[in-house]
Amino acid sequence: MIRRLARLPMPLLLAGAFAVAMLIPAVFAVAHGEHVAARAFFYSALLELVVCLFAAIAVGRFAPAHPAEFHLVSLAASFSVLPLALGLPVMASVGGSWLTMWFDMVASITTTGASAYPPGSLPDSVQLWRGIVAWMGGLMVWVAAAAVLTPLNLGGEELITRGAVTAEQHRQLRELPGQHHNSLILRHLRLLFPVYALVTVALWGVLVSLGEHAFPALMRAMATISTSGILAEAPGQPPASGMAGELAVAAFLMLAVSQRLFRPEGMRTRI
Questions:
Q1: Residue 21's closest CA among 194, 198, 192, 139?
Q2: Which among 94, 90, 95 is positioned nearest to 106, based on CA atoms?
Q3: Which of 17, 66, 90, 210 is 20 to 30 A from 80, comparing alpha carbons?
Q4: How far is CA 140 from CA 71, 237, 240, in A?
Q5: In terms of Cα–Cα distance, which of 133, 120, 118, 27 is closest to 85?
Q6: Contact by Cβ (8 Å): 215, 183
Q7: Can you tell me whether residue 234 is helix, strand or coil?
Q8: pLDDT of 118-141, one tens digit each?
Q9: Cβ-contact 72, 148 below 8 angstroms
Q10: 111 vs 234: CA distance, rounded Å
């Protein structure tokens, strides 16, 4: 199964992962009586999973001639084109133009956290989806930095190592089969996802123990670890956890930007 996934283009894998993630706000919306949003998320997830399935069948044997360049282009496409698919349930739930939806999803997946909608105007399920997109986007950036940019000495890696990739290393990278690059991405995902998820769950538990309700605490935890700032409550509203919660967020934010925690030795290898 893993070998088959390793043959698929990275944007297709990401689209499938986000489509599965749409089921989370769908269930949340049902539990909170937001039936319009529930249908929007469920049908969008179903549609996009079917499209991903047919696309996977069509490109199952795809092998890029230049995998390194292909993954860089795929990364750019994931931040610019994929948000169109991520915003379908948002448009179906609250309306708005394609440009508004696209901007909002780009801001979420890039973890910048900007919103094209007025504060407090979105249902909780849609706000949860924005937080999930930002959280997964943060993980995507982290994995891409480790598996795509680091081997090329890009994305700030050259400042840390004070080294440069030689022409011979670039040639070796270009000659590697596409399956190797996808396997490298999936290997880093298996390495990094448990840490990313564990730190998020830990902060969530701390905030709940300090008196914050589960949903706002989850949104705050995801917003902190992904550094998106997408919260459940309106901007400027103090959290129920008070000053203790703010200190906990500050402490975990230091973990979120820690090079030691989020850049283990296994990520420093060169091709």
A1: 139
A2: 90
A3: 66
A4: 13, 29, 30
A5: 133
A6: no
A7: coil
A8: 888 899 999 999 999 999 999 998
A9: yes
A10: 18
Cα–Cα distance, 35 to 147 (Å, whole number) = 40
Helix (H/G/I), strand (E/B), else coil: 136: helix
Amino acid in position 52: C
* Residue of 155, 149, 25 whose CA lies nearest to 92: 25
Residue in the structure block whose two tokens are 């011979």: 168
The total of other beta-carbon atoms located within 10 Å of residue 117's CB is 16
Of 191, 190, 150, 156, give the one whose Cα is nearest residue 68. 150
Residue owning tokens 């820690």: 258
Contact 46, 92 (CB under 8 A): no
How is residue 27 written in tokens?
A: 């269930």
Going by C-alpha positions, the residue among 126, 136, 121 that lies closest to residue 197 is 136
All residues at 6 or more sequence positions from 183 whose CB lies less than 8 Å from its CB, including other chains: 6
Tokens of 249: 């967020």
pLDDT, tens digit, 9 for 90 and up, residues 228-267:
989 988 766 777 778 888 899 888 888 766 655 555 444 4
Residue at 60: amino acid letter:
G
